[in-house]
Design goal:
InterPro entries: P-loop_NTPase (IPR027417)
Number of helices: 8
CATH class: Alpha Beta
Helix content: 25-40%
Largest sheet: 4 strands, parallel
Strand content: 5-15%
Protein name: Sulfotransferase domain-containing protein
Order of helices and strands: EHEEHHEHHHHH
Number of strands: 4
């Protein structure tokens, strides 16, 4: 933690937590294009240099950071991170898009919220809705990551379009909403009323008072 290279700590101080399909690729694309810093996962644009942050799809992972997983808390209850960023998508969208309408699998979504809420360091929550709809959410993320000076709003329209093109080339499913804010609820049209009601009951049962704290904007509080 104390050894630095090129002015950057080799072990990142920030962990980004997000279920799959929650906007992390847009964050990675903007960070790498504008800051020139490498982000975790399969090589995106920048191949070399210390990582800007670590990422995880499941904050309850145990063991060293590997692939899309890193532990927010170590086995002894300590944490290796000073900051945590939670990218949170409408649970109905994630239920369909990331978890194949499987309530048991949605426990991961809930556990991410629970562990993030318990994290003692500096925290930031950014919704997928805001990430898609507003450049201000990305500006806030850049500030949180310590690269505020790299943010350039004049390049954001191109970055968003280029990010969708990158996703289409590199992800088997491709971009389904094309970064269109008008399609933020597109996937949940596949849910029957009974399925949505079951999801609401499940989330309130799993999260208790954290449900309104984190999910009220999507009427799951």
């Amino acid at each position: 933690m104390s050894e630095f290279r090129n002015g950057h700590a080799p072990f990142p101080e920030t962990l980004v937590i997000s279920a799959e399909r929650s906007g992390l690729n847009l964050v990675r694309h903007a960070c790498e294009v504008l800051s020139g810093r490498r982000t975790p996962g399969k090589v995106h644009l920048v191949k070399d240099g210390p990582l800007l942050f670590h990422r995880t799809h499941y904050a309850g992972h145990r063991g060293p950071p590997v692939g899309p997983f890193a532990p927010l808390f170590n086995a002894d209850g300590s944490t290796s991170y000073a900051k945590a960023l939670l990218l949170l998508r409408d649970p109905a969208e994630s239920f369909v898009r990331a978890f194949d309408k499987n309530l048991v699998a949605m426990k991961q979504y809930c556990r991410n919220i629970q562990l993030f809420d318990a994290f003692p360091g500096e925290k930031l929550v950014v919704s997928y809705d805001d990430l898609v709809s507003s450049d201000e959410s990305l500006r806030t993320i850049f500030g949180f990551l310590g690269i505020a000076a790299a943010f350039d709003p004049a390049k954001m329209d191109w970055i968003r379009k280029d990010g969708v093109a990158w996703y289409d080339r590199n992800q088997p499913s491709g971009s389904q909403t094309r970064g269109d804010p008008g399609l933020l609820k597109a996937h949940q049209s596949a849910l029957a009323l009974e399925e949505r009601q079951a999801l609401a009951i499940f989330l309130r049962s799993e999260l208790g008072p954290l449900a309104p704290a984190y999910l009220a904007r999507w009427n799951f509080g």
